[in-house]
């Protein structure tokens, strides 16, 4: 199984954990990252994800995130894929998704990911037969069911 973690998943772990939902999402993301580290799940990243990460002010957070996906990614969709992404991005944007989010989803599709994981509620409403967009909490539930079916 291959996944793409939206930038907001990486930054969620640095958010204030006082709210139950944020803490629950953070715990789910950490469990997902553990599955990536143990190679139970493949991770895809992209140039747009790196671009978004580089926009951060906090250097420590930026470096921790960058190191994680540089070390553990299975596939990287680089800028050289822009032409291949263009039509996918247009299709996604036609549903009301913003440009950067559309590029992230398109990169996940091009990387043959099964899931695009995000804490952005607006994005979880996006539906496609090419990829499932899902919250990390719901993804873990699916993962637990599939593991118990083995």
Provide structural commentary.
- The chain has eight helices and five strands, in the order E-H-H-E-H-H-E-H-H-E-H-E-H.
- It starts with a strand and ends with a helix.
- It has 150 residues and is α/β, with parallel strands linked by helices.
- It has helices spanning 7-12, 20-37, 47-54, 59-72, 82-93, 99-110, 121-124, 136-148; strands at 2-5, 42-46, 73-77, 115-117, 132-134.
- Helix 7 links the parallel strand 4 (115-117) and strand 5.
- The chain has one domain (2-148): 5'-nuclease (Rossmann fold), CATH 3.40.50.1010.
CATH class: Alpha Beta
Q: Which series of helices and strands comes N to C?
A: EHHEHHEHHEHEH
Structural class by SSE content: alpha/beta
The total tally of domains equals 1
Low-confidence stretches: none
> What is the helix content?
55-70%
> On the 0-100 scale, what is the average pLDDT?
94
Main sheet: strand order? 3-2-1-4-5
Primary descriptors:
globular; Rossmann fold
How would you sum up this structure in a few lines?
This protein is an alpha/beta fold and 150 residues long. The protein has helices spanning 7-12, 20-37, 47-54, 59-72, 82-93, 99-110, 121-124, 136-148, and strands spanning 2-5, 42-46, 73-77, 115-117, 132-134.
């Amino acid at each position: 199984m291959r996944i793409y973690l939206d930038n907001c998943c990486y930054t969620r772990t640095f958010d204030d954990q006082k709210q139950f939902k944020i803490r629950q999402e953070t715990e789910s993301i950490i469990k997902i990252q553990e599955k990536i580290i143990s190679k139970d799940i493949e991770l895809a990243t992209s140039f747009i994800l790196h671009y978004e990460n580089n926009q951060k002010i906090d250097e420590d957070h930026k470096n921790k995130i960058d190191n994680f996906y540089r070390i553990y990614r299975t596939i990287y969709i680089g800028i050289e894929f822009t032409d291949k992404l263009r039509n996918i991005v247009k299709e996604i944007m036609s549903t009301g998704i913003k440009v950067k989010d559309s590029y992230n989803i398109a990169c996940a599709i091009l990387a043959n990911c099964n899931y695009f994981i995000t804490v952005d509620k607006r994005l979880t409403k996006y539906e496609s037969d090419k990829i499932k967009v899902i919250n990390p909490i719901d993804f873990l539930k699916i993962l637990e069911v599939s593991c118990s079916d083995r």
